[in-house]
Amino acid sequence: MSDQIVPTKGNLLATKKTLALSRTGFDLLDRKRNILIREMMTLIGRAAKIQDKIDSTYDEAYEALQRANITLGICDELSRTVPIDNGLNVAYRSVMGVEIPMVSLDSVNVPIPYGLNSTNIMLDNAYLKFSEVKRLTAELSEVENSVYRLADAIKKTQKRANALKNIMIPRFEATVKMIADALEEKDREEFSRLKVIKKQKVTQ
Predict the structure, then answer these.
(1) What's the rounded Cα separation, in Å, for the pair 173 and 35?
(2) Fewer CB in a 10 Å sphere around the end CB: N or C, the chain?
(3) Is 141 part of a structural domain of the chain?
(4) What is the pLDDT of residues 163-189, one digit of tens each?
(5) CB–CB of 131/111 below 8 Å?
């Protein structure tokens, strides 16, 4: 690049301006990357807590279901009375230009779908625990998808920041130095030429 640019004051000013913009761009990308990393680390911690909660709730749900099966017989027919839940909603929020999903379930109080006269509290407990697992799974899907999107954005941001820091900024700095050195050398030559002309005029 520096070999192709004509060393003029106009090109020097233009290259300095581009260099300043590149440095500003790097600072903004570096700030964006740090914000995204903080957001991602927060979500990773949250995901671990949700996963632990899901694991413990699953254990409690299966234990309650096992007790219900023991006291009521296998609850296969009763399980078919539970309706399919289509109340999953997905919206998005933006974090530094990255679209992050917000997953939610409709908070409508659905009554227990099976008859209470032929069941017991153990089945009720299993039903409520599995409902809690469903809610936690939706929350975990939101967090894990957000972490994936943030990690991808961080990777791209880091790549652009590295390109500016390691390629573009050094290249513009070298170009500025080349033009400045060439102009300085030209000024020295002009100064020397004027001194020679002045000296010749004095001796005439």
Answers:
(1) 28
(2) C
(3) yes
(4) 999 999 999 999 999 999 998 888 777
(5) no
Question: HSE-up of 95 (CA within 13 Å, CB side)?
Answer: 20
In a domain, 4, yes or no: no
Phi, then psi, of 50 in degrees rounded to 5? -65, -40
94: in domain = yes
pLDDT of the residue at 28: 95
Task: Evaluate if pTM is beyond 0.85.
Answer: no
Q: Which two tokens stand for residue 73?
A: 């017989």
**Residue-wise burial string across 21-33, b where 16 or more C-beta atoms lie within 10 A, e elsewhere:** ebbeebeebeebb
Q: Could you report the per-residue pLDDT of 101-144, keeping only the tens digit for each?
A: 998 887 655 566 666 666 678 878 888 888 889 889 999 999 99
Q: Which helix (H) or strand (E) covers residue 114, if one does?
A: none
Confidence of residue 1 (pLDDT cuts 50, 70, 90): very low
Could you give the C-alpha distances from 199 to 5, 138, 188, 190, 203, in angstroms and in order?
A: 35, 89, 16, 14, 6
